[in-house]
Design goal:
This protein is mostly helical. Helix content is 47%, strand content 10%. The protein has 17 helices and nine strands. The strands form three sheets. It has a three-stranded antiparallel β-sheet, with no helix packed on it. A three-stranded antiparallel β-sheet has the order 2-3-4. A three-stranded antiparallel β-sheet has the order 7-8-9. It is elongated.
Length: 414
């Protein structure tokens, strides 16, 4: 698009025709061109109707051309753009980042590409990281240099590398969406450099530390709460354990008359969905199994405790009842696992542990013990195998087992 086209560019819908029009006279033999008189002499303008990217009636209406040839050239440029289907960047020049984000969110919710919890998380991140800096700015005015300076400032201000990556990922998602819908001609923020940022929190826990932490938890916690910890050692997400219901557990009898439990995940309880919402992805709807006598016994007791807390508070337990309740018979607080269990045991043992670390620990141990990546992926409820691979961590035990298995092939023949 030639630069002069934008100098006099003006678009308006039938509801927005507010400019005061002088008397325009059609230019003979030039459809769409008009002349009008001003104090500085004759000027030329264009009136060309069309349907915009939203399917609404718009009008291409630039004016102020000094000659009819200039106006004719601008009209031909516009006709070329119209024929090529590239009107979006023109008709949407006023779209701001906030408007584009809200539009993207609305469409993704309507098409069920996003769950409510996803939309809430994205909105929180947008409001926290991007809105103040860029929310009111037009997409076409957000330059690569300005955005790179914004990223660099986050690094200087001490944000973690993961936090910066999350903010950038959302910005790229918004800009790519705008490009895909022809609202901007190109996402000029692609491949923004992110160098620096503080290191992410360590998610490693050694086998010895894990066993020490778990021994203290078993000693200090009630069986009801320790069962919660044991369920987390299966690699479950915190919100999935809080969302477990009585119907999630199916008791079966296996070989040698040994009981085991099917554990089915139906809901997730988060700060945004305290009463239970959708799981993180379709892959998260899965079945795990509890087969050890210790865990089977703990689940038996946890189910009985859940029912007791219901009856103690004049409630009738049913399949939809959450397994973990407060003393008052209401769903357990979202912060309970972190604040009342993990923080307490970590302080006592001096070993830092968080629920998500157990998820990484499970993935690492499973892979080291020869489990197929695809099996671990399905067990953890991951959508792709790359995520599962990223959950594994190097361990001393794994390294020793590896070199031991290679002793023979690496030893020269005598």
């Amino acid at each position: 698009m030639k630069e002069h086209m934008f100098v006099y560019f003006y678009l308006y819908t039938s509801q927005e025709r507010t400019i005061s029009m002088r008397k325009w006279t059609p230019v003979p033999r030039h459809v769409g061109l008009y002349s009008y008189d001003t104090q500085k002499g004759k000027r030329y303008g264009i009136r060309r109707g069309f349907k915009n990217a939203d399917g609404k009636r718009d009008e291409f209406h630039p004016s102020g051309f000094r000659t009819w040839r200039d106006a004719d050239r601008a009209l031909k440029d516009f006709e070329s753009t119209l024929a090529g289907g590239h009107l979006g960047p023109i008709t949407h020049r006023a779209v701001t980042l906030s408007k584009q984000f809200e539009s993207m969110k609305k469409r993704n919710l309507e098409t069920e590409r996003w769950r409510e919890s996803t939309a809430k998380g994205k909105t929180y991140l947008y409001n926290l990281r991007l809105k103040d800096a860029f929310g009111d700015r037009r997409l076409i005015d957000i330059s690569r240099s300005d955005y790179q300076a914004f990223i660099n400032k986050m690094v200087i201000d001490g944000y973690s590398h993961n936090t910066i990556k999350s903010a950038n990922s959302l910005m790229q998602q918004i800009m790519n969406d705008a490009e895909h819908l022809d609202i901007i001609d190109k996402n000029r923020l692609k491949a923004t450099s992110i160098k620096g940022g503080t290191a992410p929190r360590d998610v490693n826990i050694t086998r010895d530390d894990f066993k020490t932490w778990m021994a203290t938890a078993e000693q200090d916690l009630s069986r009801y709460d320790f069962c919660m910890v044991m369920l987390l050692t299966l690699g479950s997400r915190r919100e999935e354990v809080l969302g477990l219901q009585l119907k999630s557990f199916v008791r079966e009898i296996g070989p040698n008359d040994q009981p085991y439990y099917e554990i089915n995940y139906y809901k997730a309880r988060t700060t945004g969905d305290r009463t239970g919402g959708a799981l993180k992805s379709d892959a998260a709807y899965r079945t795990n199994y509890a087969i050890t006598p210790t865990l089977v016994s703990l689940i038996d007791d946890a189910i009985e405790e859940c029912k007791k807390r219901c009856t103690d508070n004049a409630r009738i337990p049913n399949p939809e009842t959450f397994l973990y309740l407060t003393d008052k018979g209401t769903p357990q607080y979202i912060s309970y696992i972190n604040e009342q269990i993990f923080k307490v045991i970590s302080l006592k043992t001096g070993i830092t542990a968080r629920p998500h670390m157990f998820r990484h620990y499970f993935a690492t141990q499973a892979m080291q013990n020869g489990a197929a990546e695809s099996t671990v992926m399905h067990w953890l409820g991951h959508s792709d195998i790359k995520m599962t691979a990223s959950y594994t961590r190097p361990t001393k035990e794994g390294a020793l087992a590896l070199i031991k298995s290679l002793q023979d092939p690496l030893t020269p023949d005598k």
